[in-house]
Amino acid sequence: MARIEPFRALRYDPRRVELGNVIAPPYDVVAREERGQLYDRDPHNAVRLELTRHVEDEAETDYSEIREILEEWQASGVLVRDEAPALYVLRQTFEAPGGGGTLCREGFFTALSLEEYAKRIVRPHERTLAGPKADRLRVMRATRANLSPVFMLYEDREDALASILAQALEAAGAVEAEDGSGVVHRLAPLTDRDAIGRVQGFLAERPLVIADGHHRYETALAYRDERRAEAGEAGAAPYDATLVYLANAFSPGSLLLPIHRVIRKVGAPTEEAWNRKLPGWSSKTVPLESLASVRECLDTQLAPLADRPAFAADDGSGALRIFWRDEKLDDRLMVRILEDQVMGEVFGLDPAAIREGAVSFPKSAERAASEVREGEGTVALYLNPLQPEDVFRVTAAGEVMPQKSTFFAPKIPTGLVFRAEEPR
Length: 424
Known about the structure:
The chain has about 425 residues and is an alpha+beta fold. It is built from 13 helices and 21 strands.
């Protein structure tokens, strides 16, 4: 089903730059104040290819300066195009949240033939917004390059590709870099034709699910259509594919974390209101010794309830209230139940209010707890993480999840590989 091809990447020359200083987080997670920090970290930091230094400059730019930077870095030898087409295998070594030990996730960069969602080869799990796609389309028009990969998942329950990826990572030519969050990235080209053919054959029988980068993928589709219209024909051209990073959703290092919710303006319910508005739910109150004990409490009290409807509520009063129903979740998603029965029935928030900012979506329990205690919200709602089966089941049915359902960690940095159209 999925068609992948090796490509000749543009990569930083490690003799010219310190790789850890030039890679950057994906553009859509770079905070306003981080832009200047990344710009100043190194004059060749990849953020310069993705974002203006100041947010307010985005509306007016056509990003033509990025094309000039790309050409300048290639002319000076900072960026070098590899001689042979390759898949680029990436191992990310990182510490699991909450002291869960060291984990490794292995995947690879490749060029993926673009397919419409209707074909069910590439499957989205969330909806997108028009604004970010228009901005990224300007970047693609200016650079004729894929600067950030789309992060996708494939299903390999037996880890059949693991040995191929591991062998590539131990071969000559690998480079390493540690990013600002402590993740160590080891990157190696895979050029062996037989090994590439085995990877291609394995994925040809499987669909792919977008984990991160829906806007990037849909922008690539729009850009392809523009270029085809200009050329007056469809065919095998560089714009018919895009840069993706593929990882096995079922390997131990593929971490799906929950995205919690913080109610921002509606007041905390009384005990009577909780009981009245959540009929059929059981609950218990667990004291919190400190802010630092929130995660421990979730691990011991909420995690054992992962197979049933369950969540925890924290109003900053020094205790967690754990809610659950004595029934199996089966094919239901707790994020949907939370949106309907809790945010809707208890707090009176409809989907429009949620989209318009009545709820924030912290990516850690600690951040959610801090928002409540710092007055940025009234109640934090904590969730257990989804499982890979949930993601594949929902997307196979042609459905999308509620916004901010999953957080795939760690992120894939920009700057390890670029895919640019080759000169004719």
